[in-house]
Amino acid sequence: MGDPNPKLSPNADTETSPSTSSAPPPPPPPRQQLSLVQPSNKKKHKSIKVFRVFRSVFRSFPIITPACTFPYFPSGFPDGNKVSGSRITGTLFGYRKGKVTLSLQENPKCLPMLVVELAMLTNVLQKEMGNGMVRIALECEKRPEKDKTKLMEEPLWSMYCNGKKSGYGVKREASEEDLYIMEVLKAVSMGAGVLPGKAEAEGQDDEFAYMRAHFERVVGSKDSETLYMLSPEGNNGPELSIFFVRI
């Protein structure tokens, strides 16, 4: 008697060998469930002291004194140590020999509001931070009055670090790796450290460095915004400011 296999066609002349049958591909590994939420549109206004932070995190790196000047800003730098604006969470991260990414969130539990890949290697930024003062300026051209593009929606920026042009900053959508880092750091409000990387997949070093802090976001006009790094009062370390300017 023949084999009554209901899965085989009754018109088939030959049996399909198990070795040549096309088995369905294995299911992909489950992706890590993200618990980050959409940011709200609320802005909390406070008066917070700007100070220097995180010198100890970078103490193992040599100090380099950059020979450069500050870029020109029509409105100038703010006077005094106190500024008023909305507090947001900023994270600088990347492989030590790869480019730094800046991620801005309403708070550590929210999805990123802005992700910008900076024209600077992570280990270079760490050395600049070791010097004790870092000013990053992201500049682009002014748009016509009728153009309603918001400042933080600009896709491309000329980047300066302590007055020295270093290339271009590029706005992009958050990648899976970006979201993974934000998820891992969800419980971290401020701090710095190293996370395991994907050296076997990326072909890069396996140290993924990050630094997270509160930033005071000050809007000067529709063509200028500034982020000032914040830290508990009395903590000494390097100061970081990031300027977004249309000129």
UniProtKB/TrEMBL annotation:
Where does the secretion signal sit in this chain?
A: none
Recorded superkingdom = Eukaryota
Q: Which InterPro entries match?
A: MIZ1-like_pln
A Pfam short name: DUF617
Region of interest: Disordered: 1-43
- Name its GO BP terms in alphabetical order: hydrotropism
Protein name (Swiss-Prot/TrEMBL) = Protein MIZU-KUSSEI 1
